[in-house]
Amino acid sequence: MSSTVYKVFFFGPQGSGKGTQAELLAKRLNVPAFGMGQLCREAIASQSEMGKEIDAVVKRGELVSDHIAAELFRQRLQRPDTAHGYIMDGYPRNASQAQAFTFDTPTHVVVIEIPEEESVRRLSVRLTCDRCSKVYAMKEGFQVGNACECEGKLFQRSDDTPAAIEKRLEIYEHDTKPIIDRYAKAGIVYRIDGVGTVKTIERRIAKAIGLRSKK
Any binding-site annotation on 86? Predict the structure, then answer.
């Protein structure tokens, strides 16, 4: 087994499939994968002081502060399962989050790129679990109200409309692209064509970051 430590950050516009690919790569490397949403939910469930603070913020319909987001990430990296690497999905999202993230450095930054029309098409037919946030596709036979493997229920997000999707894509272009450009200057960005099957994109990512093809 390779002794290389993989600290892989995934970025991509809404609907790019980065969450799916992050999980697949994590399984292949035998390292944990997580995103800020998951870390917030875990903190809330723990009923810690920070978790209670996050719960109050979420119930007010607000976003957690950059300081809290960074602290959640820092605490997660203290767990022993990250000793040989980890996969981070979608963080930092903007300049202020990047400024607060000072305690580690990614080894690879994977950017999954898809055309805007592909993003709109995918998001308009996706369902999300109300418990674990796993994403499902209607075209695969899933319907609103179906049960997720975690026993949560599938629903269609109210902001998965063409107008709302376009707004989120604009935010990605304005806020997140500059973060990616900063990592690109360090020579650690790997841009992946995100159009194709899940398996095809998985192979593209593995090849880009130097993993051997599966037999």
Answer: no
Domain of 193, CATH number, reads: 3.40.50.300
92 annotated ligand binder: yes
> Is the model more confident about 112 or about 62?
112
20 marked as part of a ligand binding site: yes
- On whether residue 129 sits in a domain, the answer given is no
Number of domains forming the structure of the chain:
1
pLDDT of residue 213: 67
Domain extent for 80: 6-124+160-208
The verdict on whether residue 39 carries a ligand-binding annotation is: no
Q: Is 126 annotated as a binding residue?
A: yes
Whether residue 82 is annotated as binding a ligand: the answer is no
Residue 190, domain member (yes or no): yes
**Please, is 205 exposed, middle or buried when counting C-beta atoms within 10 Å of its C-beta (0-12, 13-18, 19+)?**
buried
Query: Binding residue per annotation — 150?
Result: no
Asked whether residue 168 is marked as a ligand-binding residue, the answer is: yes
pLDDT tens profile 196-208: 999 999 999 999 9
169 domain residue, yes or no:
yes
